[in-house]
């Protein structure tokens, strides 16, 4: 479930109660959500204080033994160059979260602006923006990211830009649908009658009411972006100056039988992180949606 | 502006709704005036064009297909059609406030009501003293515990309170004119009385011109000084409240008045005008009311459209209103007198 499409049904009705006291309760109703949130918090903690919780340089081998199994000195063992796996997994968190969060953030900003303009003003602007969005949507995300990075070289910034460029259309479409519906609503009529300008109406009246699907899609986009970054790194197109889980998996290919720890831990890190973001995204979707609260 | 000059002067207003290549005329050569401190009623059944008239006064239609086809709307002597978009926006909310039928859907569900009341102030560039003004307005609306109410969300308030919030929002910039489009239709009768009383007190205290749009003649009788009765996009009769209720001249007005329930009404004697308002675009030729009229004169009413003729303090649009038979077109007095 790497990609969750929001049908108009899933878009919460007007009046999503963020400030509603029941929101937190609904969000934390399922134990898996609590676990996923806790894991993500832990992950952010590790990313921030990576040098404090690791004893070895993630990039240099030092004098450690090669392919050493799990031991008190190297909790998760060492790789084929004698580098500490724990240190590399922890430092890899930084790149994954940076790419994931930043590209999702860029996609949200672009998607919200494009979607709001298209939904509010309609007409030719709507047609133009949606055709552009459709163009990006028809491209298979990973293949295009692969080609772009292969053509223009790699860096963290380029990865963020490419992934964001491929992710914004889905958001733009959902935002457009919400905004178009809200623009017809009567409290927006009231705002126009009160003499408010278009910008103020969009920012102050419409977008707060369309926030729920944006938040949900944004969290799912983070998972998607982490997966794409890992895949690019796995194919050797990651940023060589940083440790990345995908690159670690690439290194581990030849040692699948002899040193299982080289592939198991970065693989587990990717799987758990993506899973957690998806679980949190789903939980947000349920919690922000006033309907379907029976569970 | 002198006292005698109208605050709002609508002259020969026509509103069209575009339907493909053709246009549907939903308001036809409507004229009315509202003075400062005066409440004017605009009465009619659904589909008679009341709300479209209100939107035309704001020069703001809910659909891009509607537009003013002819006529002028003069607000404080200035033609709205001549104003630049920025000037129009400066007028909306500042010189004219508007209150709607369903306060719930006209309030942003995610914004505390205090902030919503301040929105027009912000929209017109005021940044200081917002909170004080909001509390002052809430007090003016007779809402107790203003500071607490200001922090609440629309769903935490009752329907009557929400309507008071909407009125406070409309009056935030101290407009000269308030347009109230069915302000009490969605409310309970007891709450309705409170809102009407409030509107009338505000009219007196703030010297406010009020254009009250309603389908309910009883509401008009309680609140307005002048009434315009609309039928099928036209004003069919206008007069001061007293004469209009004492001696309605147009058969339609008489029918509307006869339809008002009183404690003496009994189920078997309930009156209603037969038929229904024809929808826009299917209005009959001649007098638009003639298919439903009890005193239709063949060869006259169904062929030539009557003009609005001034009579006494008012005016009506009926060929026969000068004749004795038109004084009691529905023969209600004969039928019900013992």
Summarize the helices and strands and which ones pair or pack.
The complex is a heterodimer of chains A (295) and B (338).
Chain A: H1 22-27, H2 31-48, H3 50-53, H4 85-121, H5 123-138, H6 141-152, H7 156-183, H8 186-193, H9 198-206, H10 211-234, H11 245-252, H12 260-288
Helix pairs in contact in A: 2-4, 2-12, 4-5, 4-7, 4-10, 4-12, 5-7, 6-7, 7-10, 8-9, 10-11, 10-12, 11-12
Chain B: E1 8-19, E2 22-34, E3 39-43, H1 50-58, E4 66-75, E5 78-79, H2 85-91, E6 96-99, H3 113-123, H4 130-140, H5 146-150, H6 159-171, E7 177-181, H7 189-206, E8 209-214, H8 217-223, E9 226-231, E10 234-240, H9 241-246, H10 251-259, E11 309-311, E12 314-316, H11 332-336
Parallel strand pairs in B: 3-8, 3-9, 6-7, 7-8
Antiparallel strand pairs in B: 1-2, 1-4, 4-5, 9-10, 10-12, 11-12
Brief sketch in words of this structure:
Chain A has 295 residues and is mainly α. In chain A, 67% of the residues lie in helices and 0% in strands.
Number of strands of chain A: 0
CATH topology of the largest domain in chain B: Rossmann fold
Helix-and-strand structural type of chain A: mainly alpha
Largest interface: A-B, 22 and 32 residues
What is the string of helix and strand elements of chain B?
A: EEEHEEHEHHHHEHEHEEHHEEH
- The share of residues in helices of chain B is 25-40%
Please report the number of helical segments of chain B. Answer: 11
Can you tell me the CATH architecture of chain A?
A: Orthogonal Bundle
Radius of gyration of chain A: 22 Å
Order of helices and strands of chain A: HHHHHHHHHHHH
Coarse shape of chain A? elongated
Question: What's the pLDDT, averaged over the residues of chain B?
Answer: 87
Distance between the termini of chain A: 20 Å
Low-confidence stretches of chain A: 1-18
Share in β-strands of chain A: under 5%
CATH architecture of the largest domain in chain B: 3-Layer(aba) Sandwich
Strand order of the largest sheet of chain B: 6-7-8-3-9-10-12-11
The biggest sheet of chain B, with number of strands, parallel, antiparallel or mixed sense and barrel status, is:
8 strands, mixed
């Amino acid at each position: 479930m790497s990609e969750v499409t929001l049908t108009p049904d899933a878009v919460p009705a007007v009046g999503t109660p963020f400030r509603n006291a029941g929101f937190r309760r609904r969000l934390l109703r399922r134990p898996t959500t609590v676990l996923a949130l806790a894991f993500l918090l832990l992950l952010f903690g590790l990313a921030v204080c990576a040098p404090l919780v690791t004893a070895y340089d993630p990039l240099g081998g030092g004098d450690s033994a090669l392919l050493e199994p799990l031991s008190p000195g190297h909790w998760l063992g060492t790789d084929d160059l004698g580098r500490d796996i724990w240190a590399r997994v922890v430092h890899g968190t930084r790149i994954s979260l940076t790419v994931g969060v930043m590209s999702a953030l860029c996609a949200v900003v672009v998607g919200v602006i494009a979607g709001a303009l298209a939904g509010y003003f309609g007409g030719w602007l709507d047609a133009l923006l949606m055709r552009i969005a459709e163009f990006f949507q028809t491209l298979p995300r990973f293949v295009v990211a692969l080609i772009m990075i292969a053509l223009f070289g790699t860096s963290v910034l380029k990865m963020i830009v490419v992934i964001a460029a491929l992710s914004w259309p889905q958001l733009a479409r959902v935002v457009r649908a919400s905004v178009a519906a809200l623009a017809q609503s009567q409290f927006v009529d009231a705002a126009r009658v009160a003499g408010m300008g278009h910008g103020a109406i969009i920012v102050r009246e419409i977008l707060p009411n369309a926030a729920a699907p944006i938040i949900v899609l944004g969290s799912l986009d983070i998972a998607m972006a982490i997966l794409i970054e890992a895949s690019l790194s796995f194919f050797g197109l990651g940023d060589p100056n940083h440790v990345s889980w995908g690159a670690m998996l690439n290194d581990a290919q030849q040692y699948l039988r002899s040193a299982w720890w080289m592939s198991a831990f970065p693989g587990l890190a990717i799987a758990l992180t993506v899973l957690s973001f998806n679980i949190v995204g789903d939980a947000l979707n349920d919690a922000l949606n006033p309907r379907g609260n029976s569970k | 502006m002198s006292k005698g000059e109208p605050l709002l002067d609508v002259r020969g207003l026509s509103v069209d709704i575009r339907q493909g290549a053709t246009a549907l005329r939903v308001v036809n050569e409507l004229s009315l005036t509202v003075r400062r401190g005066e409440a004017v009623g605009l009465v009619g059944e659904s589909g008679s064009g009341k709300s479209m008239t209100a939107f035309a006064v704001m020069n703001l239609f809910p659909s891009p297909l509607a537009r003013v086809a002819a006529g002028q709307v003069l607000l404080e002597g200035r033609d709205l059609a001549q104003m630049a978009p920025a000037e129009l926006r400066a007028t909306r909310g500042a010189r004219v406030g508007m209150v709607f039928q369903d306060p719930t859907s006209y309030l942003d569900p995610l914004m505390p009501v205090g902030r919503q009341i301040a929105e027009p102030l912000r929209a017109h560039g005021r940044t200081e003293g917002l909170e004080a003004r909001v509390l002052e307005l809430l007090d003016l609306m007779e809402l107790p515990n203003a500071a607490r109410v200001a922090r609440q969300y629309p769903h935490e308030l009752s329907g009557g309170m929400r309507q008071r919030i909407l009125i406070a929002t409309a009056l935030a910039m101290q407009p000269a004119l308030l347009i109230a489009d069915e302000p009490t239709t969605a409310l309970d009768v007891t709450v309705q009385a409170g809102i009407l009383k409030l509107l009338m007190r505000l009219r007196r205290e703030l010297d406010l011109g009020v254009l009250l749009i309603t389908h309910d003649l009883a509401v008009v009788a309680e609140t307005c000084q002048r009434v315009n009765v609309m039928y099928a996009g036209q004003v069919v009769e206008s007069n001061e409240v007293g004469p209009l209720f004492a001696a309605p001249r147009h058969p339609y007005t008489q029918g509307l008045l006869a339809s008002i329930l009183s404690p003496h009404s009994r189920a078997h004697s309930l009156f209603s005008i037969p038929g229904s308002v024809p929808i826009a675009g299917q209005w009959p030729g001649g007098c638009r009311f003639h298919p439903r009229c009890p005193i239709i004169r063949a060869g006259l009413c169904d062929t030539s459209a009557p003009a609005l003729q001034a009579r006494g303090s008012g005016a009506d649009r009926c060929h026969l209103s000068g004749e004795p038979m038109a004084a009691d077109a529905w023969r209600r007095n004969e039928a019900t007198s013992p």
